[in-house]
Amino acid sequence: MINLYEVSETNKMIEQENLDVRTITLGISLLDCCDGNLKACSEKIYEKIVTTAKDLVKTGKEIETEYGIPIVNKRISVTPVSLVGAAACRGPEDFVVLAKTLDEAAKTVGVNFIGGYSALVSKGMTKADEYLIRSIPAALSQTEYVCSSVNVGSTKCGINMDAVKLLGEIVKETAEHTADRDSLGCAKLVVFCNAPDDNPFMAGAFHGVTEEDAMINVGVSGPGVVKEALSKIRDANFEVLCETVKKTAFQITRVGQLVAKEASRRLGIPFGIIDLSLAPTPAVGDSVADILTEIGLEYAGAPGTTAALALLNDQVKKGGVMASSYVGGLSGAFIPVSEDQGMIDAVTVGALSLEKLEAMTCVCSVGLDMIAIPGSTTPATISGIIADEMAIGMVNQKTTAVRIIPVIGKEVGESVEFGGLLGHAPIMPVNPFSCEKFVSRGGRIPAPIHSFKN
Amino acid sequence: MKKTVITVVGKDTVGIIARVCTYLANNKINILDISQTIVQEYFNMMMIVDMNGSLKPFAQISSELSQIGEEIGVKILCQHEDIFDRMHRL
Nearest C-alpha of chain A: how many angstroms from B37? Predict the structure, then answer.
């Protein structure tokens, strides 16, 4: 039987070390909502979402109460809207109508984000894909809950450089459309390479076409718990360090698995995957950067950071895999800047640069995340940053992403406040040299040689 | 039978156990196990209870216990046993 020490340990993790389940994300297929008529398509989408997700928030809260574990977010991901709206939308403005429908549905069921305003264009864009991408600035500025993502590359297909060029412009335009809110729209737009079909984390969640009609995916968290565990073994060698991360990740993930199975049972919706990510928040003690300093770096970004992050990411996976029956999504350590107080501090003291962050993305779970750059950055430079990140994903057969915010009207030395879980960030300098000619070539970069495994 | 773990943590004072147990008895909640320590006047108790016969739903019991905790200056939590079991047992 469970003992007093174990109960105290769990409750200390929850109360003092910010252990929580970061999100229960309900994936909903909208493929059966396709219609040639925009109004009909829109109505079907709304109906499907509010019917399928009607009990999501309530169930999440019940589980929170009964197990005493906070479930921070309840969210929805849907089939990439470029597919769902392809028959109905004759231009970008039609897609904005569908974005508003998603927003309305999210508001009705009480979730805090809805993801899937997405297009998958790793090899090429259909007309509908292009309309959707061109509608993103308007869609994100006119909605509150909608999150958008575009997959522009994969190890199997290479990188669609036409889409990369277009997205440089779209990121900039989205920033301009939401300039009055410190370009917040860009915090809800992710550009991916090798995007997973079952990611529960925003802003990049969508419900892939390979999924069931509805699916429960859960994202766990707990950087504070890992940091606390490591603080007890400060002088230990790498073997002990790795074992400690692994054991802690196992414990965290077991809680996630419990919540996921329980949510699945109560909602009558199949369980999909657990995403084993260490997701930080701006709260003190809930930081991935703090784990890196606990491992022995003065600040995140110091020499050794990439190695420390590689180790952390790998041990989190090793511990988590055994704790869950199905693992998926992004699964690893997130390294957003604005959402992690330790990262913000590292940037502020000059320990962490955009280039070092890029190196870190080779070994972490996602990519350049929540990075504020000067509003004067050109679309071509943003495309160049995206292309670099996509290349890392393509060649290393991993997911990479860019969520970058050119803050209109702000320059290096200033900072930006997004509020809530999105946090705040100092504006980071960007390499000033041009890549205009490179990104303007047109066409696509072929898939790498090691993708031909058949 | 789904068991529930009730934890009481806070500064030691007269009648903590009596107060909690009275409440549980009044609501037909059966106590299966109690363990308790006091470290530096800090009271730490864990009860394993069976709520199957409870007169009230879980959420209400949980919030009423937490209110009693506030009245006597301790923190009372009420959680299904599964969360501890999953984290600490293979």
Answer: 9
CATH of domain B3-88: 3.30.70.260
Residue with tokens 């020490």: A5
Write the CATH number for A68: 3.20.70.20
Among partner residues B59, B82, B89, which is closest to A67 by beta-carbon distance?
A: B82
Q: Looking at beta carbons, which residues of chain B come within 8 Å of A20? A: none
The number of domains in chain A is 2
**Residue A449 touches chain B, beta carbons under 8 Å:** no
- Based on the fold, state whether residues A223 and A365 are members of the same structural domain: yes
CB contact under 8 A, A7 and B85: no
Q: Domain range holding A404?
A: 218-448
Locate the DSSP E strands across A121-258. Answer: 146-154, 158-160, 189-193, 214-220
Whole-number Å distance between alpha carbons of A365 and A44: 35
Helix axes A4-16, A223-231, angle to 10 degrees: 120
Q: What is the pLDDT of residues A231-268, one digit of tens each?
A: 999 999 999 999 999 999 999 999 999 999 999 999 99
Smallest CA–CA distance, residue B52 to chain A, in Å, is 14
Q: Are residues A186 and A233 in the same domain?
A: no
Q: Residue A292: inside a domain, yes or no?
A: yes
For residue B1, pLDDT beyond 70: no
Instruction: Show the 3-state SS of A13-24.
Output: HHHHCCCCEEEE
Per-residue pLDDT tens over the stretch A388-436: 999 999 999 999 999 999 999 999 999 999 888 888 999 999 999 999 9
Q: Are residues A307 and A374 in the same domain?
A: yes
A75 and A29 in one domain? Answer: yes
The predicted-structure confidence for A103-128, as pLDDT tens digits, reads as follows 999 999 999 999 999 999 999 999 99
Closest chain B residue to A322, measured at CA = B90
Nearest to B33 among A1, A11, A67 (CB): A1
Q: Which residues of A touch B66 (CB under 8 A)?
A: none
On whether both A188 and A246 belong to a single domain, the answer is no
Instruction: Look at A344 and B1; give whichever has higher pLDDT.
Output: A344
Contact A217, A198 (CB under 8 A): yes
Interface test with chain A among B6, B31, B87, by most A beta carbons within 10 Å: B87
pLDDT at res. B40: 79
Q: What percent of chain A has pLDDT over 90?
A: 90
The verdict on residue A7 lying in a domain is no
**What is the domain partition of chain B in residue ranges?**
3-88
